[in-house]
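Appendix B: a complete holo record

For completeness, this appendix reproduces one full record from the ligand-bound portion of the collection. The bound molecule is zinc ion. The inputs are the chain sequence and the ligand SMILES; the output is the full three-dimensional arrangement of the complex, encoded as structure tokens. No fields have been trimmed.
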Amino acid sequence: MEKIVSDREEKEKSGYRRLFVEIGARIGKSLFFWGMAAILAFSAYTDLVKLGDAVPITAAGEDKRIALTFDDGPHPVYTKMLLEGLAERNVHASFFVIGKNISGREDLIEKMYEGGHLIGNHTFDHVKICDLSGEAACEQIEKTSALIREITGEDTEFVRPPFGEWNKSMECSFQMIPVMWDVDPLDWTTKNQALVKQRILDKVKAGDIILMHDCYESSVTAALEVVDQLLAEGYEFVTVEELILE
Ligand SMILES: [Zn+2]
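The structure of the chain with zinc ion bound, as generated:
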């Protein structure tokens, strides 16, 4: 009788033991599972934080700066249209104006200046500097700079030599900084704004200077579409002075 009882007790005891072991194992497994889940969640979170930290640096940082430049203006219709479009987008550009185009369009030079754009020199008659004598070349620059100074009250230090030809050994009474370009969509060869836009977007990268002309409607429309696209991609538009000197 005693033996039977003790056998039963033994069985019950071992039954409880099994139960405890099983409960223990289940708790252990579940702790392990939730522990792993917590570790994975934490590491994913820290990755996200790292990613989150990185986004503003590249989005608004100095790495993604581009300078839009416009030659051959000011044009009474299209330069005005461009200035309005840039103002709406709070974007600054650089205008290399032709001296002989300024007369009668002083209000546009004023608008450029008030809008925070850079005004540069593109010679008076849109000439190849290298084809001229030293004196005539200096006069082309000086006459244009004087007209700009009369309107803005400031000297311009930047020149975009027509056809990209600059004479480094030119000795004028003033020093100019020649500004070339990285992306040339040849916007003057087509009226197809989508093509101009595509040529720019295919090539442009951070730190680039884009060459365009504000005397064509298709160029102005393409430029504003490029601005919208690149702003959405986190690029910032600056003047050539900011891009080169800072
Ligand atoms: Zn030009």
